[in-house]
Design brief:
single chain, mainly beta, four-stranded mixed beta sheet, three-stranded antiparallel beta sheet, 4 helices, 50% strand, flat
Length: 366
């Protein structure tokens, strides 16, 4: 949530008129208060939009067969006599080897020819003047005649195509396949002593229709895309007062010292941020400015950019700890605010240069 912060150092000996001016009520002497004015709060939401509708396609599924086994009798049971055995004859027994089916065939639309007559020029009539060829008068105007003439309308035939029958399907019967197997039957039974002769069987295979030909519907799903938009989550404008340490209104040096030519935060630097800055930002709804500096060694423009990177490294670390980026401002000052004599061309120790590679913070007043 973005907020504007108005700082006010309040040193009251009495609270008369504070409420009328919108100031904190019952302030303590020597205390400072920050005025927090909240702004509108927004959030990004995703909305799914259909970019292509779902539709249905038809597909023809042909008939399928399965192979089955069937146990058939090939020799009937009988009895035989001891002295006169039975006499058999062989016969052919028909059976359906493959059942018939019905296939589907697409019949395209058919068209016919026709002719329509259109009037391309309407019927007209009017007067026409003619001069007689054998005019007896020397004045030709005496031989002019007026005739009322009619001309018939003119028409034109145009060939057109008509729909005779729309597309459809036709059934195509496929005949079954027949076959026979041989079978022995008794022609003459045995006589005298009867002896049982068991029947004989065999197994045949044949194909039968498992599923007839059909049409199926294939649904092609709709296509969607995601649109991200920003919407108002919470209306701002609420004003609150929070007590703040007056010393935090001025730049406060954090003991965060960087390595030469580096913006990387060391583990010790992160520990200092956790101990010094995080409690303030979590307990108070305030904004802070982070000001980073370099020593004088190196190019001035490069040092300005490096100091900005150092300030932003602190901001990024605080954001990783859950602090809103809108409450943090990073500002690099390069070598423009040295804390000692170690300016350009001055011989200094590494410890003296390190003091200038620092980060400061202060509570903001906007």
């Amino acid at each position: 949530m973005k907020t504007n912060f108005l700082l006010l150092s309040v040193f009251f000996t009495a609270t008369f008129g504070a409420a009328a001016q919108g100031l904190p009520e019952n302030p303590d002497p020597g205390k400072c208060y920050v005025k927090c004015i909240t702004k509108d709060e927004f959030e990004e939401v995703e909305e799914t939009v259909e970019i292509h509708p779902a539709y249905t396609k038809l597909e023809v599924v042909p008939a399928t067969y399965k192979t089955v086994e069937e146990r058939v009798l090939v020799k009937e049971a009988s009895k035989k006599l001891v002295y006169v055995p039975a006499v058999y004859e062989t016969v052919e027994v028909p059976y359906i080897k493959k059942e018939g089916r019905t296939d589907l065939e697409i019949v395209p639309a058919s068209f016919g020819d026709d002719t329509r007559t259109f009037e391309v020029y309407p019927q007209t009539s009017g007067w026409e003047y003619q001069t007689l060829e054998d005019c007896p008068s020397s004045n030709k105007e005496d031989c002019i005649t007026a005739c009322f003439v009619e001309y018939p309308a003119q028409s034109q035939d145009v060939a057109i195509t008509t729909l005779v029958k729309d597309a459809g399907t036709t059934n195509i019967p496929v005949s079954e396949e027949n076959a026979t197997y041989t079978k022995k039957v008794i022609k003459e039974p045995a006589r005298m002593d009867e002896v049982e002769i068991p029947a004989e069987y065999t197994t045949i295979t044949r194909q039968v229709v498992e599923t007839p030909a059909t049409t199926t519907k294939v649904t092609v799903p709709a296509e969607y895309t995601t649109v991200t938009k920003t919407v108002l989550k919470k209306k701002g404008g609420i004003t609150t007062w929070e007590e703040i340490d007056c010393k935090l209104l001025n730049p406060t040096i954090l003991p965060i010292f960087y390595e030469y030519n580096s913006a990387r935060l060391t583990p010790d630097s992160k520990r200092i941020i956790d101990e010094r800055l995080l409690p303030i930002l979590k307990e108070k709804n305030v904004s802070i400015e982070l000001m980073s500096h370099t020593d004088s060694r190196g190019n001035d423009d490069y040092n300005m950019a490096l100091s900005q990177q150092r300030a932003e490294s602190v901001v990024n670390y605080l954001v990783s700890k859950g602090i809103s980026r809108s409450r943090l401002i990073a500002k690099g000052y390069g070598e423009t605010r040295l804390v000692n004599r170690c300016s350009n061309g001055v011989e200094c120790s590494e410890a003296e240069h390190q003091k200038n590679r620092r980060t400061e913070f202060r509570i903001l007043g906007n």
